[in-house]
Amino acid sequence: MVLAKTTLFDSDLQEAAQLYKALGHPARLQILRYLADTKSCITGDISEELPLSRTTVNQHLTELKKAGLIQGHVNGKRTNYCLNPEKVKVLKKIYKSFIEEIEANNLEC
Amino acid sequence: MVLAKTTLFDSDLQEAAQLYKALGHPARLQILRYLADTKSCITGDISEELPLSRTTVNQHLTELKKAGLIQGHVNGKRTNYCLNPEKVKVLKKIYKSFIEEIEANNLEC
DNA sequence: AATATTTGACGTATATTTGCGTCAAATTAG
DNA sequence: CTAATTTGACGCAAATATACGTCAAATATT
């Protein structure tokens, strides 16, 4: 690779790719779904919901946080992870414009 | 890693993650956008549209093909890459159910 | 038939992701 | 205060992704 060429692309493409990438692992999708299903924030023991160790789950949580899709609030001994509605909005917007661009054409070969 | 634990997840999560993953690189997004913008199929020289070598672009094309988002048709010396509308439909469906699940709740911490 | 173009296959190097165990700091409970 | 719980930081190993050069097969051109 030598150099990370990712930065050579339009910033909107970079932002979009970063978000999709965050969604690109079943564990992270399951975490998000779990958040939605239980209608609550996460307090620690999500690792028992996943077939992965606590350490690994924590890593996925960190990545979702880095992507901005969830937020962590420390609450004493526990940490509460919650969805970030603002970032979900951004995702929706990005996806919408992407799919509209794609859908606009019925390509024939 | 030792073992790929990806297979331990629900197949729908796996399928979704695989699609999002394919979208998780700016080069691949740009390729898809280029396909849409030019309202045509790709015949070879997309690498000139990207800040990457032909070899690398070809690799990204292969990945998009593997994900099913595009199809390649050999046409003599050239190869035509086209969007696969069926897979785009699948993506839309997957994304829709995902975002609806997420959106259903206004989580408060 | 000989040459040029186009493409994917292959190999390689580096970067990143994935997964886990261990440990230490912070916090809570007893 | 001491012991237990919870979490993130750190390090490590293996797998994947990213990027590219080179080469060979297929096709088109001359």
From TrEMBL, chains A, B:
Organism: Marinilabilia rubra
GO molecular function: DNA binding; DNA-binding transcription factor activity
Keyword Transcription: yes
Pfam families to which the protein is assigned, alphabetical: HTH_5
Top-level division of the source organism's lineage: Bacteria
Gene3D superfamilies reported for this sequence: Winged helix-like DNA-binding domain superfamily/Winged helix DNA-binding domain
Every HTH arsR-type domain range: 8-103
Stored PROSITE patterns: HTH_ARSR_2 (PS50987)
Listed name of the protein: Transcriptional regulator
InterPro entries from the UniProt entry: ArsR-like_HTH, HTH_ArsR_DNA-bd_dom, HTH_MetalResp_TranReg, WH-like_DNA-bd_sf, WH_DNA-bd_sf
UniProt key word Transcription regulation: yes
Keyword entries, A-Z: DNA-binding, Transcription, Transcription regulation
